[in-house]
Amino acid sequence: MTPKLPIHCPSCSDSLSVSQLKCENCQTTVSGNYSLPFYLQLSEEEQNFILQFFLTSGSLKEMAVQMGNSYPTVRNKLDDIIEKIKKLKSGNQ
């Protein structure tokens, strides 16, 4: 199993940033301080929800059936994720 990219500090739980990237082909290393993309700042559950949303072509009705939840429950989950992304976006500007 591939290790999951950590997004929170194991010591203080603050958000982590990327500080180094490396090319496995030529061994070039790029250093700096980069924020994680919004998608990677979401929980695994939220990421899976977005993936399912994409795979169902944005059909919340179909997602509700697949998840065994009501349409309003799925709609509320999507609204929660949208709000979280808006907050992440406003905090990174």
Features:
93 residues; alpha+beta; 3 helices
Care to describe what's here?
- It is built from three helices and two strands.
- The mean pLDDT is 91.
- The longest helix has 21 residues, at 71-91.
- The chain has a two-stranded antiparallel sheet.
- By secondary structure, the protein is α+β, with helices and mostly antiparallel strands.
- The chain has a domain at 39-91.
- Helices cover 44% and strands 12% of the residues.
- The radius of gyration is 17 Å and the shape is elongated.
- Helix 2 packs across helix 3.
Please count the helical segments. Answer: 3
The largest sheet is:
2 strands, antiparallel
Please tally the β strands and state the result.
2
Order of helices and strands: EEHHH
**Approximate helicity band:** 40-55%
How much strand content do the residues show? 5-15%
Class by SSE composition: alpha+beta
Q: Over the alpha carbons, how many angstroms does the gyration radius reach?
A: 17 Å
Tell me, rounded to a whole number, the average pLDDT.
91
The end-to-end span amounts to 35 Å
Give the low-confidence spans: none
Question: Strands of the biggest beta sheet: in what spatial order?
Answer: 1-2
Shape annotation: elongated
Task: Give a short synopsis of this structure.
It comes from Flavobacterium microcysteis. 44% of the residues lie in helices and 12% in strands.
List the helices and strands and how they pair.
Elements: E1 18-22, E2 29-34, H1 44-55, H2 60-67, H3 71-91
Antiparallel strand pairs: 1-2
Pfam family, one: DUF2089
Protein name: DUF2089 domain-containing protein
Organism: Flavobacterium microcysteis
